[in-house]
Amino acid sequence: MARPAGVIGFSCAEDVTAAIAAWRRWLEMEKRVSRHTLTAYTADLSGFLEFLTGYHGRPPALNDLSAARLMDFRAWLARQAADGLGTASRARALSGIRNFFRWLDRSGRMHNAAVGLIRAPKLPDRLPKPLTVADAAALLPNAEAWANQPWVGKRDRALFTLLYGCGLRIDEALSLDRRDMPADDTLVVTGKGSKQRMVPVLPVVRDALADYVAACPYALPADGPLFVGVRGGRLRAAIAQKQMREIRHLMGLPDTATPHALRHSFATHLLADGSDLRAIQDLLGHASLSSTQRYTEVDADQMLGVYDNAHPRARRKPAED
To answer: Which residues act catalytically here (predicted)?
Structure first.
């Protein structure tokens, strides 16, 4: 048996080990998935193979994977649920396993008919939770005012202004280098799958970035990170999320006020102001319009809330004695 170091944490049959290595290369080089996706898919596959090892009493080879039955996959999902994995985690794990099995089929290594028959755990219908326009506007100066160090406050304000003003994902913003800082009214962003898109940059975003760069105590070379932590290294998403937690606590905002909520707010506020849905799709970097269409439901919910609160015919009549 061979053990692919640093990938699967237990012994596998040699043909499975070779297949995993080739699959990971395909994901990384051809599909150009993010590092997080590659790590998550590999961990999910590791858990599935480890389950099969215990389930059948030996590490599986490709022939065993080909012969895996529908009940084997269901038993694995049931074990995950019993171990406390949530619905979203189980659905993502199944997606990773299906990806591996489909790749095995397309590459001619083996075929398994059962994997296509598994029903994914049903995910709850969760709509994005944007901030109100007033809360988003108030958050940006507060991000600067309540920081422990003035330059950190300017950094946080610049980051959150960029997320809200351009609709970036947190990883997209933190992956920017100093040379990517916009000098005019556009910014080239590298999103999921290394796909690039161009987004407009408002003057308020450029001003916030310039203010932060001028105050930053560290040299910011062109090929180095734009956003840095207190030790000068590239700022991590966990730190930005922690900063947001502290700000929302001080402002009394709900737990849904996260860095990613600023991206939701960008899209929802544009839609409410009459922007075209396909234009918003391009700005967000969504591959599918269906992903962007979620914001129409958010906007409808908000409009109904305004109607219920403001329209005299929508107000509840007091109960009669």
So the answer is: 169, 192, 260, 263, 286, 295 (o-(3'-phospho-dna)-tyrosine intermediate)
Same domain? For 78 and 178 the reply is no
All residues at 6 or more sequence positions from 127 whose CB lies less than 8 Å from its CB, including other chains: 294, 297, 298, 301
Q: Do 111 and 137 have their domain in common?
A: no
90, 263, 264, 269: which one is catalytic?
263
Q: Are residues 267 and 186 in the same domain?
A: yes
Asked if 206 and 298 sit in the same domain, the reply is: yes
From the list 90, 169, 206, 264, the catalytic residue is 169
Q: Is 31 a catalytic residue?
A: no
Out of 92, 260, 264, 269, which one is annotated catalytic? Answer: 260
Which one of 92, 117, 142 terminates a domain?
117
Q: Taking 80 as the threshold, does the pLDDT of residue 290 lie above it? A: no
Residues 216, 304: one domain?
A: yes
Locate 253 and state its tokens. 């905002």
Q: Give pTM, 2 decimals.
A: 0.58
Which one of the listed residues 98, 129, 192, 245 is annotated catalytic?
192
User: Torsion over CA of 296, 302, 307 and 308, rounded to 10 degrees?
Assistant: 130
Q: Is the pLDDT of residue 270 over 70?
A: yes
Q: Is residue 315 part of a domain?
A: no
What span, in angstroms and rounded, lies between the C-alpha atoms of 20 and 32? 16
Mean pLDDT of the chain: 83
Residue 294 is among the residues annotated as catalytic for this protein: no
Q: Is the pLDDT of residue 90 over 50?
A: yes
pLDDT at 1 over 50: no
Clarify whether 212 is annotated catalytic. Answer: no
Same domain for 109 and 150?
Answer: no
